[in-house]
Amino acid sequence: MKKRIKEKKRVSKSGALTSAVFGMCVSSAILLALLIMFSLIGLVISNPHSLITPFSFFSIYASSFFGGFISAKKNKCSDALLCGLICGCFVFLLFSSVFWIFGLIIDVKSAPISWLFRAIMIISSILGAILSTLTKSKSPKKKRRR
């Protein structure tokens, strides 16, 4: 009996990594879709410069939140905090590397406050993972026959 429990824990740890990678891919797709949508909204507005920062922060944090949510939903185990943390770290590394590359091209130094904004990405991913465990699945349960 104890062997089965240990095997399930080991499988869930490797499953957490694969579901976190899946969550990162979904997070990147959501970010791309949100940025395209907000770019099209910016074309319609007469003064889009005032909305660039809120749109970009909302896109990053929402995509990180849904990445953590989906990675924990896909894993279907009790370690949602681990799924959210791994997915948040992957998203953090992905976006930090993109920001670093563009910083090299444009030659801009990052402010220390930007690390706080990037840490919020990890926190929002963890919150999404925790929220996914609190929501109930809508799959029908099988009735037992007696």
Entry summary:
The chain is an all-alpha fold and 146 residues long. 80% of the residues lie in helices and 0% in strands.
Structural account:
- This protein is mainly α and 146 residues long.
- It has one domain.
- It is built from four helices and no strands.
- The chain has helices at residues 2-44, 52-75, 80-106, 112-134.
- The longest helix has 43 residues, at 2-44.
- The relative contact order is 0.15.
The span between the termini is 26 Å
Low-confidence stretches: 6-11
The coarse silhouette is: globular
Instruction: Summarize the main sheet.
Output: none
Instruction: Please work out how many helical segments DSSP would assign.
Output: 4
- The SS-based structural class is mainly alpha
Spell out the key features of this protein.
146 residues, mainly alpha, 4 helices, 0% strand, globular
Set out the fold topology.
Elements: H1 2-44, H2 52-75, H3 80-106, H4 112-134
Helix pairs in contact: 1-2, 1-3, 2-3, 2-4, 3-4
